[in-house]
Write a structure and sequence with these properties.
With about 140 residues, this protein is of the alpha+beta class. The chain has 4 helices and 7 strands. It is about 30% helix and about 30% strand. The longest helix is centred in the middle third of the chain and has 18 residues.
């Protein structure tokens, strides 16, 4: 699908619209404005489908009335990695706990849903990478 570009001149103003009639570029006083690249990712059908799917998943999760089990894997600024399992009484609480996990993150953090069986079999894991490197005699070099 080719993208349609509409360029309008209003006095000293040039406005360039794309095929969705959204302003993509605006200039004042240039006689020959450069046309911008209109290959924005949010114009693609795949991106819009993915965005719609993410919104629907969020809404369906929010409306979930049953218990949700999830695991948080996070590493803080001191390279201490903690993997813990949690449960939320409903979808609204799950989203709240997930957002608070990401808001309080000091390093890479992941949250994912698991089954009840995985939740019950999970053991909390704590690993201090700096301590391990120090014990191995290489405190200046930390491996993951």
């Amino acid at each position: 699908m080719k993208e349609l570009i509409i360029m309008k001149k209003f006095g000293p103003f040039y406005i360039i619209l794309d095929n969705h009639l959204e302003i993509r570029w605006f200039s004042i006083g240039f006689k020959n404005p450069k046309l911008p690249s209109l290959s924005f990712r949010y114009h693609s059908v795949e991106y819009r489908k993915r965005a719609w799917k993410n919104k629907m998943n969020y809404i369906l999760t929010w409306l979930t009335p049953w218990t949700i089990y999830y695991i948080i894997d996070s590493r803080d600024c001191d390279h201490l990695r903690v993997i813990t399992a949690h449960k939320a009484s409903n979808g609204r609480n799950y989203i709240r706990y997930q957002n608070s996990a990401y808001d309080g993150a000091e390093g890479p953090t992941s949250v994912w849903r698991v089954s009840r069986k995985e939740y019950e079999n999970h053991t909390t894991s704590i690993r201090d990478y700096i301590l391990e490197a120090h014990e191995n005699g290489h405190a200046h070099c930390v491996d993951y």
